[in-house]
Amino acid sequence: MPMTLNEPSASAAPVARPTPTAPRPAPETPAAPAAPAAEIAFDVRELSVFYGQNEAVKRATLQIDARGVTAIIGPSGCGKSTFLRTLNRMHELTPGARHTGTILLDGEDLYARDIDPTLVRRRVGMVFQKSNPFPTLSIEENVLVGLRLNGVRDRAFLQQRLEESLLAAALWDEVKDRLKRPGTSLSGGQQQRLCIARALAPQPEVLLMDEPCSALDPLATAKIEELIQSLRERYTVIIVTHNMQQAARCSDKTAFFYMGKLIEYAGTRNIFTNPSNPQTEAYVSGRFG
Amino acid sequence: MSNHDRYRKWKSAAMSGLAIACAVLVVAPLVFVLAHLVREGFGAVNFAFFTQLPKPVGEPGGGMANAIVGTFALLGIALLVGVPVGLLGGVFLSEYGSERINFWIRFGADILNGVPSIVWGMAAYALVVVPMKGFSAWSGGLALGFIMIPLVLRTTEEVLVLVPNAYREAALALGISRWKIVAHIVVRTALKGIVTGVLLALGRVAGETAPLLFTAFGNRFWSHHLNEPIAALPLQIFTYAIAPYDDWHRQAWAGALVLVLLVFVLSVGVRLFFTDWKKRRSS
Amino acid sequence: MTSTTASASVAAPKLAPPSRLADRAFYGITLLSALAVALLFVLVAYLLYRGAHLSIAKFGWKFLVTSTWDPVAEQFGAWPFIYGTVISSLIALIIAVPLSIGAAIYLTDLAPFWLRQPLVSIIEMLAAVPSVIWGLWGIFVMVPWLRDHFFPLLKKYLGFLPLFQGPIYGVSMLAGGIVIAIMILPIVTSVSREILRAVPDLQREAAYGLGATRWEVTRIAVLSYARRGLLGAVVLGLGRAVGETMAVTMVIGNRPEIATSLFAPSYTLASVVANEFTEATTDIYLNALFELGLVLMGVTILVNILALILIRTIETPGSRRA
Fold it and tell me: Per residue in A214-235, pLDDT tens?
């Protein structure tokens, strides 16, 4: 009888994994920033997220692998964006926001008292649904703003990061000759890639993407999906999407949320071809959502 | 159609006619005054007007060079007083304030906007002229700056609130400090609108005479120091207008023409020039 | 785990730690600046009160009702100026309010669309004309015309009223009222326009649907709905009127006497301060002027508070974030 991951007594290992490596427990690192070689990026336990009285996420427990792409799917209002925003401490900026449960990033409690949320957000980057490059900044300034406004002055380093981030975002070739042009002079798809470059420039450990393609045309979407694939070697990417095909194409593991609860979390192939939970099956076969 | 209906229709047309008449009458004074300014002032505005000092009483000729420079000096001081406080106050209302405290501050600013400008002059007199034992550009600029503060505060707040939250979110997600987000991203995005508001406030105070009557006081000669009384265009116009000399009257019209142009450029011209601000932001 | 770059030719510099101190300091500066609004109030009131203390001590409340203004005998009373201010403002309102509201109605409901923005710009320009320039025009254009043409006409046809009797100088209470009216036209018009624009179209449509004529729609659906806001616009205009200084002092005659005739010269609170402040030779004289300033400030603040209360219930304070 397969277990869903909401059972508190379940083992930390997910039900099925597409990659054959044996699971290793995440090493505990005390308060040291960015400990390398952790297998698990986020260790989420009994997370409930509230807007005032409204419980948007109900006792979710799951572990998100470091490196690789994890997709979060579910119908509108199922809590997936809310869940995402707790991972980089953006949720708490909403009035009336609160949560219970713990989130560990590389073994550290993200919400410990002495942790500065600003520092968390430097480690966990975010790309939003609608691209939002800063309108008064050039393409170059947009990419580097996360470094410059955080005190980085070394011009050689900045130049290097500029090129690397734009390459990683698959935008370099298109803009390398017009880096001084305003960020808003690009097309919609290009702007979103610019936002991805901007998020990548400070070299975060994790990249959160909240429905990054929902405002884009299919061509632009395809470009971004390609780029997501290229990021999986080096980054932990967590992408919220309402487009199931996108999740199927891009991700290694998928979590299915419904009405605030985590229904199933497994390797993507399994979720889509052989889901364990009947609700999951109903959703991925299009019977609702 | 019954007679009563005909009456109703006629009455409606008559009222419409009245409304048009009202609109015409509202616009008419502007036409009259501008026509006079151009007619009387245009001929009197010459090179000498811009470059020469006033001649002694009774002698024809001379100009208002010192008054023009003086006005700019006073506006400069007013900027220094009014912009930092007004801008930062507007930032507070938009970025940090709460509903309650914002309501009262806005209310207070609106009240202050309604205080007659001569009262600000009296305040500057008591604050600066008395201790300094003399009139000065500082006191005049301070009075004008006082007037600017609530104006700049309101316009800055209005413009900052229009900056989409998406930009604040994006900056937060990059782990940038709150104050840097406000100073470097939000204010920068709204900069055009803020500048517009400042220029509008400048246009408003450039024409003020009353607060300068006993602060800047006026000067027949060049002021060599901001501690001295200083000439200003509106003051000079006033002095010349109430004097009995025809040549001074002629120069008063010239001064008025120049002043009105300055004020129009700062007030209406700026708004027209920057009007794409609102349209651009919605892209 | 940080992403490794292929050729890490430059060592990654550390990001500056976020400074709580800088955040707090910035918050503090902005808070103080916002509170400057409150501070300004207190400051001005205090400065005026301190400047007036001798006069307040000497004359007390009687100051407000005493008619003498005699610098030589050092007897001062505010009544002539209060009277002048009230009457001239009243005249201004009587002239300006119907015109402004009529123009506002025209702007919101009747004017062709292409004409609206230009008209609004013209009214803005009207508002921008400095007071001293109205005064200049007043002295050399309006007053002579009043003296030579309009006032004699009024005297001829309305001279049975004590308002229009007595010698005609040109500079007069009525001249003051007219020039104030011109100066408050823009603000009353634009605020009225905002009020009328805020009336939901539904109201108009419902009235049209019932077969009302244009004027009836305006009267029934718009004006009655906007009554309170329009009153606020009027009160706002009153606030402006009370404070007008330069143009008034140039055309009103500057004589502290109370007369029934509108042709007689008068004096307002603001114009006496403007005129005599630098001439005030004695301390008590200056203090009396400060006290007039205090009265002026008090009156305008009260009037403006009333206006804002009336208007704010229609306009939304501030706007929500985009």
Answer: 989 999 999 999 999 999 888 9
Paired strand residues for A72: A240, A255
Rounded CA-CA distance A265/A80 in Å is 13
Q: Does C26 touch chain B (CB under 8 A)?
A: yes
Structure tokens given for C236: 């706002």
User: Is A14 a residue whose pLDDT tops 50?
Assistant: no
Cβ separation of A198 and B174 shorter than 8 Å? yes
Helix, strand, or coil (residue A38): coil
Residue B16 has pLDDT above 80, yes or no: yes
For residue range A89-101, list pLDDT tens digits in order: 999 988 889 899 9
Among chain C residues, the shortest Cα distance to A234 is held by: C3
Distance CA C138, CA C171 (A): 9
Buried b (16+ CB within 10 A) or exposed e, A210-234: bbbbebbeeebbebbbebbeebbeb
To 10 degrees, what angle do helices C283-312 and C269-276 make?
140
Which among C50, C243, C318 has CB closest to B106?
Answer: C318
How far is A157 from B96, CA to CA, in rounded Å?
35
Q: What is the ipTM of this complex?
A: 0.90
C208 inside 8 A of chain B by CB: no
Say whether C3 and A235 touch across the interface (CB within 8 A). yes
The pLDDT of residue C223 is 81
Query: Residue B3 half-sphere exposure, CB side, CA atoms within 13 Å?
Result: 0
Question: Hey, is the C-beta of B170 within 8 angstroms of any chain A C-beta?
Answer: yes
How far apart CA A107 and CA A111 sit, in angstroms, is: 12
- Residues 79-108 on B with a CB inside 8 Å of C are 84-89, 91-93, 95-97, 101-108
**CA–CA separation, C106 and B15 (whole Å):** 10
Count of CB atoms within 10 A of residue B183's CB? 16
Smallest Cα–Cα separation from B74: which of B198, B269, B271, B218?
Answer: B218
Query: 3-state DSSP helix/strand/coil percent for chain B, to nearest 5?
Result: 75, 0, 20
Mutual angle of helices C20-59 and B99-114, in 10-degree steps: 40
Residue A266: strand pairing partners:
A254
What is the residue-averaged pLDDT of chain A? 85
Cα(A193)–Cα(C44) distance, integer angstroms: 55
Q: Does B241 touch chain A (CB under 8 A)?
A: no
B75, amino acid identity: L
Split at pLDDT 50, 70, 90, the class of A196 is very high
Residue holding tokens 């400090």? B177
Q: Could you tell me the pTM of the whole model?
A: 0.86
Place of tokens 């919220």: A240
Closest by CA position to C130, among listed B204, B253, B211: B204
Which chains lie within 8 Å of chain C at 3 or more CB pairs, if any?
Answer: A, B
Kindly compute the dihedral angle of the four CA atoms of residues B122, B127, B133, B135, in this order, to the nearest 10 degrees: -50
Neighbouring-strand partners of residue A44:
A62, A103
**Residue linked to tokens 């966990």:** A124
> Minimal Cα–Cα distance from C34 to chain B, Å?
4
Query: In chain B, which residues have their Cβ closer than 8 Å to the Cβ of A119?
Result: 175
What number of residues does chain A have?
289
d(CA A282, CA C38): 62
Asked if the C-beta of C322 comes within 8 angstroms of chain A's C-beta atoms, the answer is: no
C317 touching A (Cβ < 8 Å): no
Distance CA C89, CA C234 (A): 11
CB contact under 8 A, A121 and B170: no
pLDDT tens digit string along C38-83? Answer: 899 899 999 999 999 988 888 888 888 888 888 888 888 899 999 9
Question: With an 8 Å Cβ cutoff, are B260 and C239 in contact?
Answer: no
pLDDT number for residue A34: 54
The dihedral through the CA atoms of A232, A237, A243, A247 has a sign that is positive
